[in-house]
Amino acid sequence: MWHNGEMALSSEKEDFCSRQQLEVTKLQRLNAMLAEVLPANKFYREKLSGQKTPLQSLDELSDFPWTTKSELVGNVDVVSAQNRTWSDEHYVRFHQTSGTSGRPLQIWDTQADWKWWMTCWEFIYSRACLQPGEPVFIAASFGPYIGFWSAFEGAVVSGGRAIPSGGLSSIARLELLQKTEAKVLVATPTYALHLAEVAKEQGYDPSTSAIRCIIVAGEPGGSLDSVRHRLASAWGADVLDHAGATEIGPWGVGWPHHSGLEVLEEWFHPEFRAIAADRAARQGEMAELVLTTLGRSGCPVIRYRTGDVVKPIWPTQQEIAEGRSPRVWLQGGILGRIDDMLVVRGVNIFPSAVENIIKSFPEVVEHRLTVDRRGNLDMLSIEIEDQLASPARVAQELHVRLGLRIEVKVVPAGALPRFEGKARRVVDNRE
């Protein structure tokens, strides 16, 4: 139910007994959102002109056009969100993306939108089994990026004790983490591994800390088996994968002992576009994730092409009857990005697949991929910081797993960059 731009949000964690029940809830929320938003939202009023509403089924949404990131970015010189619904006085928060692959994307949120963000984060923290008063350590510099702001305030509304660490060095963060006896760590998988590396350099074993659960987000990796194993081993903690985006919201969460992500379908309607063909993806097929928000009226996205590559798995009625969630499961989490995909001698390769192989070698501390164009082919080489100084074994495993011979060379310890936020391990020298 919408009222003055605000949907009534349940404070309780919603539980659905069937796909049908879930689909009915989504359709109701979608139609309520469209009825409220379309008259006031210039971007979507023009984009969806001529589309029939209300929808009789979720399948009818496929008649709507895609929304792309380039549309939302718009004019970089204008400080506003392209898909903004309401007038300026309704908005209380401004955030933007880093713009590492182009211009920053600006997003505004109303108070109601932020309440919806917190509802999603309450669900995420419930998966981490957050207890009242438990310290939650946010290992990030906040800046204008929404992810860690929402994680921080989400910890507060979930009953935890949120501990910020923006502006601190890694060593200072470790000291604060120990002093506060933090139980939950929120970080990118890359930075959580780096923090463990720094701890060992300082003579401190992170597995002896009070950390019992690591919530990772911001980049693929939280559902890569090799990364999860390395994180769990280094910290002696469970690893919980999470996915979200500034322009969408916190749309997915895994389970502490499983590799993959569950789409929070009560607040996000997913569609899956086959990578190799212009059609809907089938069970277990590589697909681009397309999302429609169902609770964010201030800056909604409708049929938004995320660019994330996933493999959807829908539970059977029998599995649901046996207690499995009816939400769609993304096997392996986010497998990569469409715009990151490399075609090397006819083989499609995602950097996350390479990372999963490299991280299976515990002696390899860091790595970097370099892509060059030779003629009409993309050529891939890899630098590694390897404590064994033995690149041949890594090259052999890459050859066996990917079917390609890739040049692997060792560089000195500390030669490769470290990252607090999203890791940038691909150097693209192509024109």
CATH fold name of the largest domain: Rossmann fold
> How is the largest sheet built, in terms of strand order?
6-5-7-8-9-10-11-16-15
Q: Class by helix and strand content?
A: alpha/beta
In oligomeric terms, what are we looking at? Answer: single chain
Q: Which regions have little confidence, pLDDT < 50, spanning 5+ residues?
A: 1-12
Task: Give the N-terminus to C-terminus distance in angstroms.
Answer: 51 Å
Q: Determine the number of helices (DSSP H or I, runs of at least 4 residues).
A: 11
Q: What does the average pLDDT come to?
A: 89
Shape: globular
Helix content: 25-40%
CATH architecture of the largest domain: 3-Layer(aba) Sandwich
CATH class division of the largest domain: Alpha Beta
Radius of gyration: 22 Å
Tell me the number of strands.
23
Largest sheet: 9 strands, mixed
What is the total number of structural domains?
Answer: 2
Describe the SSE topology:
Blueprint: E1 2-3, E2 6-7, H1 19-37, H2 42-47, H3 69-73, E3 91-96, E4 106-110, H4 111-127, E5 135-138, H5 146-157, E6 161-164, H6 170-180, E7 184-187, H7 189-201, E8 213-216, H8 225-235, E9 238-245, E10 249-255, E11 258-263, E12 268-274, E13 287-293, E14 304-310, E15 312-313, H9 317-321, E16 329-331, E17 336-337, E18 342-344, E19 347-349, H10 351-358, E20 364-374, E21 377-386, H11 391-402, E22 407-410, E23 426-428
Parallel strand pairs: 5-6, 5-7, 7-8, 8-9, 20-23, 21-22
Antiparallel strand pairs: 1-2, 3-4, 9-10, 10-11, 11-16, 12-13, 13-14, 14-17, 15-16, 18-19, 20-21
Helix pairs in contact: 4-5, 7-8
